[in-house]
Amino acid sequence: MPLWLLFFPNTPYLLTDLFHLASLQIYQAGGHFLNTTSDWWAYLTLLLPVLVMVFSGMAQVFNLFSAIKLSRGQKIGSFVILSLLSSIAIYLGRFARIHSIELLVHPVTVLKLLLGDWPVEKIQFVLIFSILQLGIWGLIYFLQRGGQEE
Fold first, then answer.
1. Runs of H (alpha helix) within 68-119
2. Pick from 3, 4, 9, 7: which is nearest to 91 by CA?
3. What distance lies between CA 33 and its chain's CA centroid?
């Protein structure tokens, strides 16, 4: 389980790859869209795997928390802590270009980056991505619960 948690931030990290959608020439000024088939295929091949992997990976956290029998309050706290920690890892991966394996290979370097400077932009990014992850978990919870009530 601890090893799985070290690599978990790679799942929501995929959401940062959606910025590559900006390089597509689909949207034009004035709210018009171009029917450029190659760009729409690029849109599909970027968006679909990100959505599938993010939702399936983040849904696994529910299974993990169910397996260790946490109370409701402990689950909520665990989701908040995991979202904050993974958001910090996403920040380090996206902006400092640190990869998960470096936790094992260069732990001192990673620790220095974790404890180093915390400019307001870093704090804002961590909060925004934490809220995004909590929102996705809320949606997964809502969808799972809705299916059980029928």
1. 72-95, 102-105, 107-115
2. 9
3. 28
The three-class DSSP label of residue 99 is: coil
Instruction: Please report where in the chains the tokens 């956290």 appear, as a residue.
Output: 61
> Given pLDDT bands bounded at 50, 70 and 90, which one contains residue 107?
confident
126-130 long-range CB contacts below 8 Å, 24 or more apart?
Answer: 126/84, 126/87, 126/88, 126/91, 127/87, 128/87, 129/12, 129/15, 129/83, 129/86, 129/87, 129/90, 129/91, 130/80, 130/83, 130/84, 130/87
Radius of gyration of the chain (CA): 18
Give this prediction's pTM: 0.84
Query: How far is CA 149 from its chain centroid?
Result: 28
Instruction: Report which of 104, 96, 146 is spatially closest to residue 121, judged by C-alpha positions.
Output: 96
Quick one: tokens of 57? 């990976």
Which tokens in the block code for residue 25? 């020439």
